[in-house]
Amino acid sequence: MGTMAQVQRLPEWLKIRLPRPDTIKDVERMMRSKRLHTVCESARCPNLPECWSKRTATFMILGDTCTRACGFCAIKVGKPLTVDEEEPKNVASVAKDLGLKHIVVTSVARDDLADEGAGQFAKTIHALREELPEAIVEVLVPDFKGKRWCVQIVTDARPEIYNHNVETVPRLHTIVRPQAKYERSLRVLETAKELNPKIYTKSGIMLGLGETQEEVVGVLKDLRAVGVDAVTLGQYLRPTMRHLPVNEFIHPSVFKEYERIGSEMGFAFVASAPFVRSSYNAIEFSRKVMSERLAAMER
Fold this sequence. Notes:
The protein is 39% helix and 14% strand. By secondary structure, the protein is α/β, with parallel strands linked by helices. It has one domain (21-298): TIM Barrel (Alpha-Beta Barrel). Helix 10 (252-265) links the parallel strand 9 (230-235) and strand 10.
């Protein structure tokens, strides 16, 4: 599996995408005009040029400063911003301007708030419903410290997709997500499905941090056991030298094998490739499991 030393040379299958500057500037201008943030920028996502060129983005609510310090994440850590009461309607306004059919909303962790930020998610979902009633809404949420009532605030707002990432295998959790717990994340996903069985649940895993194939398959089994419908697997890429090093670059053929295994386990959707991220091409999941609704929107 390699060593924990950073591998300096990228393999040939990890190629940098070239941006289209004009379209990227258009999306950036819209975001800044409404004081909005995107996880694409804050997490230094390698797919930003491609996604923004398609005029898609994952909205990041509750500011750009996180209360947790995960070893893989480039989002800044510190004292969080004051919750912006205008944020939900601003997200809805930009989503409408972009003409989005599938909207992904995520957030920084807000351990400083009594409801962990769940209320702002609900307000944002409601605002999106008012502006884009036919759109599919996906939320990518933190673990809310496992508080059932916080999970319920979000599920009661009825997003189509409830996404929460386990990120890695149990053995590496204390290194990768020191302020989170693997079992707690599974419980959050299970709770969301219990509270609203009509909601699709989704989770994601990063590869290349030192996990074994047996451990990855074990995570897939755990996710299916709590009713998760969709899963994403992608290559971890070190955002800066301050973050965890890449242990191994996983070959695309291995990702394809995980896709086959996940499909055979019964996931409704499996996205598994080096550049896959939790919300990358999220609309493909919609096209597969909610095709009739999307078709109606496009008529």
